[in-house]
Amino acid sequence: MRINNRRYLGNKYRLLPFIRETVTRECGIVRTFFDVFAGTGAVSSAFLDSSLTVNDLLYCNHLAHWTWFSPEPFREAVVRECVEAYNSLPPVDEENYMSKTFGGTYFSAQACRKIGWIREDIEQRFRAGALAFRERAMLVTALLYAIDKIASTCGHYDAFRETAYQAEDFTMGVPEVPYTPSPANALFNEDANALVRRVRCDVAYVDPPYNSRQYCDAYHLLENVARWEKPPVSGKARKMTRDTLKSAYCTRHATEAFADLVAHLDCRFIVLSYNNTGTRANDRSNAKIPDAAIREILGRRGKVSVFEQAYRAFSAGKSDSIGNAERLFLCEVRD
């Protein structure tokens, strides 16, 4: 299992050569790289030769960052043994939180019983001291990657496909970490605007949500499994309460939030990914921060350059766009 083996809105994995080449050419040597809104961590994976600070508000992404970037050692044999045991697990008959809550929606009832059994087993092993935190993170991440492949969705969990085939089983993979993370790597699960006040770096890479579609809505189920607090859910989509996970960048306050973030970044270069989203038929998919505001806010900190590459972003099929491009706004900070 590799870092790019998961569907995720706004994932930059296919754009890594463009981002890496631009940063290397324009910023020179990058000793410290701060991925402010890291998502699955794809962009951080292109800067493994730097010390990384990786942050995301979703806990399911935070566990993925621990999987790929934590300097904490892990026992590969233990992780592999657990994955093999879970993959050979016979059908689970006992009902649990997952089957009672999500059976017959995003997954079949049988798949849900297996998901719930495995997730509970991981938690019990961790609480008993049989797993270190990173080992727990790796197993939960492996579970999330596996179930995302069989989910009856179009790639997110705002809704499920009622008539789609539902698999009865799934196969977990062992996370592949073929490098030694820097001992200076730091991983955070915090509000970005609060965290930037405490981090100093060479390059701050900023990839905030672009539109009104909240990530905690799109990935509420994976977040629920990652946290494993077994909350009540509501509505046809079976969503838990997500008030503390809502992002201002998906609201009319996006420009204000962006200005506050930029003002408090302590770095030599600010690199902003901001997809122009083209012209969308669905207004929810249109960018919240106008280009003029981006240039003006970054311009307060230094010289701004823009680099662009044509790109077809992920769509669930209702938001076709024209003129879609991925842009990197690069600000060389004056002070």
Question: Can you put this structure into words, describing what you see?
Answer:
This protein is α/β, with parallel strands linked by helices and 335 residues long. It folds into 2 domains: 1-71 and 184-212 and 251-335, Rossmann fold, CATH 3.40.50.150; 75-180. The protein contains 11 helices and 7 strands. It has helices spanning 16-27, 59-69, 76-87, 97-102, 109-127, 133-150, 192-195, 215-218, 220-227, 254-263, 291-299; strands at residues 32-35, 51-55, 186-188, 200-206, 266-273, 302-310, 325-333. The radius of gyration is 20 Å and the shape is globular. The model is unreliable at 317-322 (pLDDT under 50).
CATH topology of the largest domain: Rossmann fold
Estimate what percentage of residues fall within beta strands. 5-15%
User: What can be said about the biggest beta sheet?
Assistant: 7 strands, mixed
Helical/strand content category? alpha/beta
Give, in spatial order, the strands making up the sheet with the most strands: 3-2-1-4-5-7-6
Rg, Cα atoms, Å: 20 Å
Mean pLDDT: 92
CATH structural class of the largest domain:
Alpha Beta
Task: Please give a quick description of this structure.
The chain is α/β, with parallel strands linked by helices and 335 residues long. It is built from 11 helices and 7 strands.
Keyphrases for this structure?
335 residues; alpha/beta; Rossmann fold; 7-stranded mixed β-sheet; 7 strands; 34% helix; 13% strand
What's the arrangement of secondary structure elements?
Blueprint: H1 16-27, E1 32-35, E2 51-55, H2 59-69, H3 76-87, H4 97-102, H5 109-127, H6 133-150, E3 186-188, H7 192-195, E4 200-206, H8 215-218, H9 220-227, H10 254-263, E5 266-273, H11 291-299, E6 302-310, E7 325-333
Parallel strand pairs: 1-2, 1-4, 2-3, 4-5
Antiparallel strand pairs: 5-7, 6-7
